[in-house]
């Protein structure tokens, strides 16, 4: 046992995303999203899985939230599907969609669970893609803000915590650089930075509108943060670490927190001819929003190693492990700057993600030092193969060990001065893991379904009872690793 404790008002939580859990992809007026279209392309997902049914949270949300209440969850982070509110991206509000999320919020509040709403978790209305290219056009900015304002007005008296974007760095990289996410474009670096700039401006305008409508609310973005270590003390690798951090981390975090891009990286991209155009109006908008931001949202799963990558070294594209066959992921990098080899000091998951609990504390301390912002850990969890016994038991001691080690390091970060408001595991129930199908399980609740289907019945894993005790004790049951 440890003497560390979290504050009594700490938000112990769990998280989800609309496309990954809801299903009901054509019900009650919902429109088609970019993901509804993308998953129809053969070979894009594991065993051609889709979110058409997912784990049927749309029809089972009361059951799922009752389980959250039984666990003692303090906050539930979920995303809203833009296509349920505006089936065509804008125009007339779909009242049935608005009512669905109103019901989720009310159900949470009934059980004393703080709702935490993510505005955008990757599911863009396909109508906007077809009309003007979605994020590729600056038209998306005002459509996004309009969508957000409808939600702020609808839920301003009931929702305090809001997240504008989920992992902007991931959906843009996989969408325009590696073709693994919609719109499935490859090596389109110029457009990649244009798309990111549009997303930043949408975020910024939304933050300013939010402060007009919900002045006492809290808003930020959630970034997929992978802190880095230089492979050794050789200065050439230390320089590669700086280049990696600026290009892969601070490019987003500096905009959220400061309203500006890292100068060194902007200069590098200028030389390549791919830097986004930033007008004086853009710069003022980004800076104004940064001054209004309330927290840095962090989705933390792993750290990276930075090593110098010669000009004839590995490129940015390599095999990503989406099968769960350990060792199939390939090393990637940027020639002349860095590459990211595996860390010999750390174990990995079956999907080749490094397991680095101390990296979570490292991330919190770096954010505290660099940005002096409160932190919400909006995702952290272990994707694994789980087995259900004949008597419906799921003994996921490996997940308990993973979460215990990460929470311990988070508690140490708080003890060392980091202001952390919430910790949301990914995820509450098992769900569709985007490219990885249903075999990669993250939840406290086992959902009986696989790539072929299933009963969708819910079963509590051992980790459910473990997290319940952690929450009840404010972390007193966490063991020192």
From TrEMBL:
Its EC number is 3.2.1.-. Keywords: Glycosidase, Hydrolase. One of its GO terms (molecular function) is hydrolase activity, acting on glycosyl bonds. SUPFAM superfamilies: (Trans)glycosidases. The active site is at residue 379. It is an enzyme of class 3 (hydrolase). Belongs to the glycosyl hydrolase 1 family. This is Glycoside hydrolase family 1 protein. It comes from Oceanobacillus aidingensis.
């Amino acid at each position: 046992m440890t003497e560390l404790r979290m504050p009594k008002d700490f938000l112990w939580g769990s998280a989800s995303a609309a496309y990954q859990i809801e299903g009901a992809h054509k019900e009650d007026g919902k429109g088609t999203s970019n993901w509804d279209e993308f998953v129809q392309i053969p070979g894009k997902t594991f065993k051609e899985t889709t979110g058409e049914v997912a784990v049927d949270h749309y029809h089972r949300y009361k059951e799922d939230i009752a389980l959250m209440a039984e666990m003692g969850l303090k906050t539930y982070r979920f995303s809203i599907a833009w296509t349920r509110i505006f089936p065509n991206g804008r125009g007339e509000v779909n009242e049935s969609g608005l009512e669905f999320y109103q019901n989720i919020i009310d159900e949470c509040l009934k059980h004393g669970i703080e709702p935490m709403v993510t505005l955008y978790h990757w599911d863009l209305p396909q109508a906007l893609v077809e009309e003007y290219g979605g994020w590729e056009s600056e038209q998306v900015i005002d459509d996004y803000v309009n969508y957000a304002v409808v939600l702020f007005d609808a839920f301003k008296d009931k929702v305090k915590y809001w997240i504008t974007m989920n992992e902007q760095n991931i959906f843009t990289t996989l969408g325009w650089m590696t073709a693994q996410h919609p719109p499935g474009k490859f090596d389109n670096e110029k457009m990649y930075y244009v798309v990111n700039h549009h997303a930043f401006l949408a975020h910024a305008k939304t933050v300013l509108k939010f402060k007009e409508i919900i002045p006492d609310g809290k808003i930020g973005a959630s970034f997929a943060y992978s802190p880095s270590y230089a492979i050794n003390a050789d200065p050439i690798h230390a320089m590669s670490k700086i280049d990696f951090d600026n290009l892969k981390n601070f490019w987003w975090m500096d905009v959220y927190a400061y309203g500006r891009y890292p100068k060194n990286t902007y200069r590098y991209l200028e030389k390549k001819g791919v830097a986004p155009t930033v007008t004086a109006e853009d710069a003022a908008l980004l800076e104004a929003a940064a001054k209004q931001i309330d927290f840095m949202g962090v989705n933390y799963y792993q750290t990276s190693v930075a090593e110098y990558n010669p000009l004839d070294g590995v490129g940015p594209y390599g095999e990503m492990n989406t099968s769960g066959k350990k060792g199939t992921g390939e090393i990637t990098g940027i020639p002349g700057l860095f590459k990211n080899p595996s860390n010999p000091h750390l174990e990995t998951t079956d999907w080749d993600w490094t397991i680095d609990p101390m990296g979570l504390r490292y991330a919190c301390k770096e954010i505290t030092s660099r940005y002096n912002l409160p932190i919400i850990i909006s995702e952290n969890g272990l994707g694994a193969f789980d087995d259900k016994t004949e008597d419906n038991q799921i003994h996921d001691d490996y997940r308990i060990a993973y979460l215990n080690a990460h929470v311990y390091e988070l508690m140490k970060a708080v003890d060392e001065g980091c202001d952390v408001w919430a910790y949301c595991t990914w995820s509450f129930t098992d769900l569709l893991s985007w490219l990885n199908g249903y075999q990669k399980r993250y939840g406290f609740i086992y959902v009986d379904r696989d790539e072929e289907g299933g009963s969708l019945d819910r079963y509590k894993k051992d980790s459910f009872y473990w997290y319940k005790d952690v929450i009840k004790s404010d972390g007193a049951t966490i063991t020192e690793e």
